[in-house]
From TrEMBL:
The keyword Transferase applies. It comes from the Bacteria. Keywords: Transferase. The lineage of its organism: Bacteria, Bacillati, Bacillota, Clostridia, Eubacteriales. SUPFAM superfamilies: UDP-Glycosyltransferase/glycogen phosphorylase. Residues 63-230 form the Glycosyl transferase family 28 C-terminal domain. This is UDP-N-acetylglucosamine--N-acetylmuramyl-(Pentapeptide) pyrophosphoryl-undecaprenol N-acetylglucosamine transferase. It holds the Pfam family Glyco_tran_28_C. One of its GO terms (molecular function) is hexosyltransferase activity.
Length: 242
């Protein structure tokens, strides 16, 4: 909302994706630059095999899930259903999950309730301090759809199940996530439709199709704007030199 209010009165507007240009209301002075991604996301992606070896992933599918630093209750609840399914069905996966600050006890309770446990196939932490490494290792990411998260998924080229937060201005996470779904880089599940059964069904379908996650990851990679910082710097230099 603030961006739309300010756009008519500034000299230059930067948009992360083409779909945002018209929404910002100043198309004549808007440049699509992507979202800058920290360099280590790119560098760690090159070390994928070594990082997977350190994690002991082997040939298993690595699933990374998180719902933000505070911990989204609904994300924790449905991920618990997924973890239970993975273990009960003996799926060859390594699942890495971050509960967030307020999800620690909730997830422990869900482990008991749904009869699954941390171990060789499931690692649970409160917070992820090494996100670039885990993104590099992952085959599938389950997360909210914040702009920077999406930029990092595109940078490393990872398939995703995106659960947009409904508690954001103008539902922008949903619209950003849909850009990835349109490119067959992600599956979007709105929170109003989110159930454990829905998440399990979605992931099960993905795992059942050989090469599907790799294909989606390739599609995500094609959306990445690797030179975002350069685009921003160049545009600013041209503006001040006028």
């Amino acid at each position: 909302v603030t961006n739309k209010l300010l756009a008519p009165d500034v000299d230059l507007v930067f948009a992360a994706v083409p779909a945002a240009v018209e929404k910002l209301g100043a198309p004549d002075k808007t440049i699509v630059v992507g979202n800058p991604v920290r360099p280590e996301v790119f560098t760690k992606a090159k070390d994928r095999d070594a990082i997977r070896a350190e994690l002991g992933a082997g040939d298993r599918t690595v699933i990374l899930s998180f719902g933000g630093s505070l911990g989204a209750r609904r994300v924790n609840e449905v991920v618990a259903d997924l973890c239970a399914w993975e273990q009960h069905e003996k799926k060859p996966v390594l699942h890495l999950h971050a509960t967030g600050q307020y999800g620690v006890q909730l997830f422990k309770d869900l482990e008991k309730e749904k009869n699954f446990a941390e171990g060789d196939g499931l690692v649970v932490k409160e917070y992820i301090n090494n996100m670039p490494e885990l993104l590099a290792a992952a085959d599938l990411v389950i997360s909210r759809a914040g702009a920077l998260t999406l930029a990092e998924l595109e940078a490393v080229g990872r398939a995703a199940v995106l659960i947009p937060s409904p508690n954001v201005a103008e539902n922008h996470q949903y619209f950003n996530a849909m850009e990835l779904q349109k490119a067959d880089a992600a599956v979007v599940i709105e929170e109003k439709d989110l159930t454990g059964e829905k998440l399990v069904s979605t992931v099960s379908d993905m795992l059942a199709q050989p090469g599907k996650l790799a294909e989606m990851g390739k599609n995500a990679r094609s959306l990445s704007v690797d030179d975002s910082l350069d685009r921003i710097a160049d545009a600013l230099m041209k503006m001040v030199q006028k």
